[in-house]
Amino acid sequence: xxxxxxxxxxxxxxxxxxxxxxxxxxxxxxxxxxxxxxxxxxxxxxxxxxxxxxxxxxxxxxxxxxxxxxxxxxxxxxxxxxxxxxxxxxxxxxxxxxxxxxxxxxxxxxxxxxxxxxxxxxxxxxxxxxxxxxxxxxxxxxxxxxxxxxxxxxxxxxxxxxxxxxxxxxxxxxxxxxxxxxxxxxxxxxxxxxxxxxxxxxxxxxxxxxxxxxxxxxxxxxxxxxxxxxxxxxxxxxxxxxxxxxxxxxxxxxxxxxxxxxxxxxxxxxxxxxxxxxxxxxxxxxxxxx
Amino acid sequence: xxxxxxxxxxxxxxxxxxxxxxxxxxxxxxxxxxxxxxxxxxxxxxxxxxxxxxxxxxxxxxxxxxxxxxxxxxxxxxxxxxxxxxxxxxxxxxxxxxxxxxxxxxxxxxxxxxxxxxxxxxxxxxxxxxxxxxxxxxxxxxxxxxxxxxxxxxxxxxxxxxxxxxxxxxxxxxxxxxxxxxxxxxxxxxxxxxxxxxxxxxxxxxxxxxxxxxxxxxxxxxxxxxxxxxxxxxxxxxxxxxxxxxxxxxxxxxxxxxxxxxxxxxxxxxxxxxxx
Lengths: 290, 276
Prior knowledge:
The complex is a heterodimer. Chain A is mainly α. Chain A contains 14 helices and no strands. Chain B has helices at about 1-35, 55-65, 70-100, 105-115, 120-130, 140-150, 150-160, 165-175, 180-190, 190-210, 210-215, 225-235, 240-275. In chain B, about 75% of the residues lie in helices and about 0% in strands. Chain B is mainly α. Classes of the chains: A mainly alpha, B mainly alpha. Chains A and B meet through helix 2, helix 5, helix 6, helix 8 and helix 11 of A and helix 1, helix 3, helix 4, helix 5 and helix 6 of B.
């Protein structure tokens, strides 16, 4: 038995392990150290400064706003992408004539670059842009907004564009999950006289848990890592109204404040890990019991 | 009878609603495509009107003035090589990790798995690449993309390889095959569908990405399609027709890949994500 195991030599793991360690893990570990230094682009010597960078983060209004915006973006997109994705999947799992066409349409934006979607929406979201013109044409003048230039609205607008782009991707995963649920459960429930609402909550949702779990994880982690949408649509503006953690890191990098930028990155790392680990443990357990 | 009819009516209502909702997705994309054929004055309405005269010349101009041929080759090179490295290295690693059920292999698996959740640390990665002496080069970006996608690929491959019976390997070992031989002759052919999934997923995410190029491609001769479009967007901010032509051009390769690879995307996600 032992011999059989040793036939699978570990050297085949090394290439992946090497690339992944050098270009992902080592920088991540080094970041923990550099977060506690006054590392700057223009100085070679660096000093250990304890928690100074983190104190700076929590006393700087822009940085706090960036953390708040990141949280808003993550929560709004997780809710939007999953609720809409699930509704689309349930609807497109019915016997509809155009279901294949509709699935392809709803999925299509998620194959495009965030850059493409962001540039496309920028002119349409202007005060005199397409979206307001459409709202006015259908009599909804009151909804017409300065979508990207109103400081209290801008992060929400960016979140909605992100939902527009990728709810179809969540739909695809939910559809795959729905199709792995055996019809027999529903037939049995129907015989017992359960309503479709009841079968949805008692059969569909529980059996869809793995798909829900992976979708929550993907959208949450993606939401906390948000960068490209904001970078392209507003660059963090107007003023600093739409700064997120990702754009703050770019800014500190550009200004040469490498220690501070790395500290912001580390903070993001810690937050994402704390939130994601319970989901991860759940998924691992699923795998083991299978 | 009454029940089926009710069901049919319900389906019609749902279908009608979805067709309407699909316009929300389609119309912006149609505005994009139509806009890419308009004049720079015409496009400013950002509307569904057809172009007066279809300006195919927009595409020619974009290719010449945007330096797109260079960016296109860079993108193909970066995306292609990083996908290949990722596929070979991750599938080989996953094969061993899925077959060896020891503490060490489980620990390595978790080590890879962490990469699914942890965000990369950009500034220290730049330092590592500088230390290795190839910051700003295309090869640095290729290796970074290969590393960033390792977690996801190992996750997909391991799930799939576990479903391949170990008895197949054992027979081959008895006949004197090496682990290398078993991997390439037996496992690789069986995981071809997952290879397709990983290839498509990695290709799409690398092709569409702008974050890594923003930080790591400092020289315009190394720019990828998205980065040169971003730059073009800054320079030609009034010529939306050219910008739109540019956006259509960069989307074309992934769109074609999607048309051919559609079934692998969904089946691969099912195998990896939903079953896992």
